[in-house]
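The protein record reproduced below.
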Amino acid sequence: MADKHRIVILGGGFGGLYAAQALKYADADITLIDRRNYHLFQPLLYQVATGSLSPGEIAAPIRGVLSEQKNTTVLLGEAVDIDPAVRSITLRDGGVVVYDSLILATGSQASYFGHDDWKTWAPGLKTIEDATTMRHKILLAFEAAERTSDEEERRAWLTFVIVGAGATGVELAGALGEIANHTMKHDFRSIHPQDARIIIVDSGKRVLPAYAEDLSHSAEAQLIRLGARVRTGLSVTCVDENGVSLKTASGEEHIRSHTVLWAAGVAVTDFARTLARKTNAPTERSGKIKVAPDLSIPNFPEIRVVGDLAYVEDDKGKPLPGVAQVAMQSGSYAAKCILRKIKGQPECKPFKYFNKGDIAVIGRASAVANVFGIHLKGLPAWLVWLFIHLMYIVEFQNRMMVFIQWGFLYLTFNRGARLITGFAATQGVKGTQPLENLGE
């Protein structure tokens, strides 16, 4: 009996998981490899970063999700090299995995535009570790402001700068506004959290540049009501422990802040760059691989690239955005193309993305949405966002937990995951009084 077709999927995000699920009944040996043992619901990472949800509520073990798929093996590992000539992948621990078909779905990472040293002072938001680091910085800022008696230092601690005015930046700013104005309103004795300055900076002309102008303007108005300030047309020139330096139309400006959060720009993973080099695949400026209409790499039809890593244009010549829906649809499409090949059926028609719309939540009953061309604002948009996000969370238990948490948040503004854990929780904070001096 002939050996079964070997399909390797790199990445357990939306693209990889949807590809694996589309192959559930395939007469093939499927191996999904990820350096994490869980699937992460990235659209809700900002809620972990702002204390609304705990990491376990937006993640599910990949083995558990795929446990009923008897044709699928899940491996914990990180791909570091590939030999496309012999169709093999090398893992960081030296292990080698061979394939007949490969689906690359390793996602993206935060881009600091050549200034990786900024990451020390401005964490991005791509992983659970990023989210908990961001949560620590946000909560520690309020704690440090409570302890310092220096007004200038206190102002720096209560100034939050978000770099990037896309969906992630807008959602972070809205959540911070709710924390300052509602959640922590009565928690401190020396400070007033509602005095916090929340500043969004971006080089573009408006917030949510990928959205229609009316939705963008509505989002900005909703942010202003929560106390956030939007500043566009500015370029970041430096980020350090003292804040952010900006290039403006009138010259240089410095915003003093100890809490800078990065929500601007993404880059491909290191393995994607390795694959492009080994296959001589064409790439665009950010490193995305320019794929054929069937998402394969030119001259390597057995390799398909999906999600954030694939450069694909829509009918109007615009590149598809790096959002969950694109990853889901491209992952399923790639899997179905491989199935057709295994069965000896005609090749797939070119991939076509079906845009169901865009949604960005700003706060409690506050959001903007474009759903099948219909523009929604405020409560109606927020209700649509609530339904869609609950529907796409992987495990039913997680859906129920998130729904309950959101119910409490809506009624009370209480964020139950406001924990400062690990090393940072036991250390003194720059610019504050020693603990033994407090109360003197």
